[in-house]
Amino acid sequence: MAITRRLFGTDGIRGTANIAPMTAEIALKLGQAAGLRFTNGTHRHRVVIAKDTRLSGYMIEPALVAGFVGAGMDVVLAGPLPTPAVAMLTRSLRADLGVMISASHNLFEDNGIKLFGPDGFKLSDETEAEIEALMEQDLGEQLAAPAKLGRASRLNDAAGRYIEVAKATFPRGLRLDGLKIVVDCANGAAYKVAPAVLWELGADVIEVGVKPDGFNINRGCGSTSPAFLSSEVRRHGADLGLALDGDADRLILADENGAIIDGDQVLALIARSWSAAGKLTGGGVVATVMSNLGLERFLRSRGLELHRTKVGDRYVVERMRAGGFNVGGEQSGHMILTDYATTGDGLLAALQVLVVLVDEGRPASETLRVFQPLPQVLKGVRFTGVSPLEDAGVQRAIAAAERELAATGRLLIRKSGTEPVIRVMAEGEDQAIVARLVDSLCAEIQAVAEAAPAETAFGEAAA
Questions:
Q1: Which helix (H) or strand (E) holds 267?
Q2: Do 331 and 380 lie in a common domain?
Q3: What's the CA gap between 186 and 294, in Å, rounded?
Q4: Residue 413 Cα distances to 59, 216, 387, 422, angstroms
Q5: Which of 257, 278, 311 is the last residue of a domain?
Q6: Residue 425 CB partners (closer than 8 Å, separation 6+)
Q7: How far apart are CA 424 and CA 392, in angstroms?
Q8: Is 236 within 8 Å of 206 (Cβ atoms)?
Q9: 3-state secondary structure of 189
Q10: Tens-place pLDDT, residues 72-121
Q11: pLDDT score, position 1
Q12: Residue 458 included in any domain
């Protein structure tokens, strides 16, 4: 039976701040429902909450705290920290639940809420559906009695704990001495911890995107604005550039010439390195349908398989756990290395790349171009109301494009799980054909989107 989730999308709940579903009222209800769902036994129950740097965190955080406290849970506030740090702290502190307040790579106007179970992994679709069902009930009689209310406290050494965990993933005795590294923290959650880790491991660190003001997260910086990283690498004559996103679970790189390296190349590099060292498990790598065919061909040439999932790092993790894989990720920069973390961690992935750079002693431009990608074009079309993909004319255009690409490439069209956007991606041997097909399909979808009347606000059926 299909699982119905109105609020939860592919990466938690997300929307425009102070507009449903991203309101204090809904956050309060979520805290109550999730608190009740994860209250099992007679021990003092605990939830860890962290956030990124966007202004609306000051609204969402106290609402969640009130909800959890009302459900009888103690709340540990960790302050601004990367999403993977929340997953780590949830396990480390033996908490029953972890919460990250972030809209990841979106601009400050949006915010989101991601939930982690006691094992540090994101909740399943089934568990999220159970929480939603509770939110629709009158929870008054189920909440804690006055003497059973939770308490809230702040974990002052949260950042230090994550820094030490991150450094421990770097081989003992190996150093970054002599490497000049630009790190772009997107004015987001890693603005303190990422530069600290790199500096303590010996690098000459150029910090950018480390002055959050509540409004500038991901604005012209971070993994979604790689041109800024490229220019900073060239300006400072750096050996490498690292760009994270607002909650630091994504990584994009730039070599010493400023050329951008995406997540597919990072996956290939780590897979090759770990396979040679006998560390790679599962006989391959897990990625999504968005990853380039060039990655698939490269892995196959080394006797490894690429296992694809639908878009969303949670689905990558689920496939990794089911198949015993320890390397997975997305072209967009999510990198999951389950030897070290339970969710995407841009900083830990960067450290594994740096291990290879130090070991090989060659420039990043020579080391990080692991395979030749096929020409790939990705564009998005924003819409309101009913998805344009329901239109018969759009469906005919898609079918025609699939027939044209069948022998030399592939076409992927999907609705985003985090924004009201249709993603159109094509790849193949011929760049001109790929670009023409994407432009044509986007024009068809755009025409239908503009003709449709605006209806419900996005967020009711994110999937």
A1: helix 263-276
A2: no
A3: 29
A4: 35, 31, 12, 7
A5: 257
A6: 290, 376, 377, 378, 379, 411, 412, 413, 438
A7: 17
A8: yes
A9: coil
A10: 999 999 999 999 999 999 999 999 999 999 999 999 999 999 999 999 99
A11: 44
A12: no
Residues of the chain with pLDDT under 50: 1-2, 455-463
How much is the pLDDT for 24?
98
Residue 104 a catalytic site member? yes
Same domain, 331 and 422: no
- Lookup: tokens for 29: 């209800």
Q: Which of 257, 276, 301 is the last residue of a domain?
A: 257
Per DSSP, the chain holds a count of helices (H) and strands (E) of 14, 19
Give residue for tokens 């969710």: 343
| Structure token digits, residue 422 | 């249709």
56, 92, 102, 104: which is the annotated catalytic residue? 104
268 contacts 370 by C-beta, under 8 angstroms: yes
Task: Determine the 3-state secondary structure of 313 from DSSP.
Answer: helix
The answer as to whether 461 is a domain residue is: no
226 and 299 co-located in one domain: no
| β 74-80/46-51 pair status | parallel
CATH no. for residue 277?
A: 3.40.120.10
**Structural domain of residue 19, as residue ranges?**
8-156
Are 249 and 84 contacting, i.e. CB atoms less than 8 angstroms apart? Answer: yes
Q: Which residues make Cβ contacts (< 8 Å) with residue 215, sequence separation at least 6?
A: 54, 55, 108
What pLDDT sits at residue 6? Answer: 83
12 and 151 co-located in one domain: yes
Do both 13 and 107 map to the same domain? yes
Distance CA 271, CA 299 (A): 8
The reported pLDDT for the residue numbered 4 is: 63
Q: Are residues 54 and 187 in the same domain?
A: no
Cα torsion angle, 36, 38, 40, 44, sign: negative
Length of the chain: 463
Residue 1 in domain: no
Element (H, E) at 99: strand 97-101
The CATH number of residue 382's host domain is: 3.30.310.50
Q: Are residues 280 and 355 in the same domain?
A: yes
What six digits make up the tokens of 305? 């398989």
Q: Which amino acid, one-letter code, is at 322? A: A
The tally of domains found in the chain comes to 4
